[in-house]
Amino acid sequence: METATPRKVEHQQTDRGYVPVYATGVVEQPWSGYSRTDHEVWDTLFKRQCEMLPGRACQEFLDGVKKFGLGAGGIPKFADINTVLAKATGWELVAVEGLLPDEVFFDHLANRRFPVSWWIRKPEQLDYLSEPDLFHDLFGHVPLLLNPVFADYMQAYGRGGMKAHAIGPEALMNLTRLYWYTVEFGLIDTRDGMRIYGAGIVSSKGESIYSLDADAPNRIGFDLARVMNTRYRIDTYQQTYFVIDSFEQLFEATTPDFTPIYARLRDKTPHAAADVLEETDRVFHYGSHEGFATNADT
Ligand code: HBI
Ligand code: FE
User: Fold this and answer.
1) Beta-carbon-side half-sphere exposure of residue 84 (alpha carbons within 13 Å)
2) Which of 126, 130, 88 is nearest to 114 (CA)?
3) Residue 178 in contact with residue 227, Cβ under 8 Å?
4) Residue 270 lies in a domain
5) How far is the CA of 254 from the centre of ligand 1 (A)?
6) Which residues form the signal peptide (predicted)?
7) I want to staple 64 with a disulfide (CB 3.0 to 4.6 A). Which of 16, 146, 173, 281 is the partner?
8) Interhelix angle for 148-167 vs 169-179, to 10°?
9) pLDDT tens-digit profile of 24-35?
10) In a domain, 219, yes or no
11) Number of structural domains in the chain
12) How far is the CA of 104 from the centre of ligand 1 (A)?
């Protein structure tokens, strides 16, 4: 970290009270401050996901969990993770209070720093909470940062984010959808079958099953402009999952400058989360849409 003394910019109301937020959002991971309950929450969630994910999560993710030793017992120390990460792909975890302003978040990613919320959910929040905590950020996102291609994709996303932020809110929305449908909720079609790589799925017991097994959601082949023009759900399981063939495909699709795509999408009405485009979609599974919420998507 170049910034030894972060500048305090404002206070922010969170579940844990009123907390200072620094210009870079970075704090020290207060490891010795974790309670016994905090460590038990990590152990419970870790065990629960690891029992379920073999055969569901992609091999790159499972390999990452193992290489980091995330199941050693208790909440991992970011410093230990960083030793492994620095050698493998040059990424670094930084501890943060929670959600960062978009441009701050992008700046971290563009510099191969991944922000991880230092605090963990309460025992009564094992299945759902509305903001990303340590389990989601660390267990969900960090294992794939050991994969060189995915690691480069995350950095490219950060750079793209800084550009989109400068272009305007519509461009930023297009890019946010890309993140949502890949980094958070992506599926990958492997030789062994359909697998999960999205952090929002692997960190959720319910969605780890639903995303692969349920009849209701669509599973549609990844297409960059299609994804950027598709709204999403923040309050329910996804109505559509987009399927990549490989991390190389994902990285290559995101290499070109997005400016002309943003321009093209500007006058188009976005697709609803549940839409299937009969003419153009590569459909892996046409969802039954049973039980879908019909109020507006994000
Ligand atoms: N901040 N800490 C943190 N983690 C995120 O995942 C995150 C964020 N700020 C903004 C953000 N995500 C997204 O809205 C961006 O992809 C646009
Ligand atoms: Fe996330």
Assistant:
1) 18
2) 88
3) yes
4) yes
5) 18
6) none
7) 146
8) 160
9) 789 999 999 999
10) yes
11) 1
12) 9
Q: What is the CATH number of the domain that holds 66?
A: 1.10.800.10
Neighbours of ion ligand 2 (CB under 5 A): 199
Q: Which amino acid is at 268?
A: K
Compute the distance between CA of residue 14 and CA of residue 99 in angstroms, rounded to an integer: 10
CA dist., res. 45 & res. 127, Å (int): 9
In a domain, residue 290? The reply is no
Q: pLDDT digits over 272-287, tens only?
A: 999 999 999 999 999 9
Segments forming the whole domain that contains residue 200: 8-285
Please classify residue 82 by burial: count the beta carbons closer than 10 Å to its beta carbon, then call 0-12 exposed, 13-18 middle and 19+ buried. Answer: middle
Cα distances from 46 to residues 74, 193, 286, 298, in angstroms, run 9, 24, 32, 30
Ligand 1 is surrounded, with C-beta below 6 A, by 96, 99-100, 102, 105, 115, 132, 176, 179
ipTM: 0.95
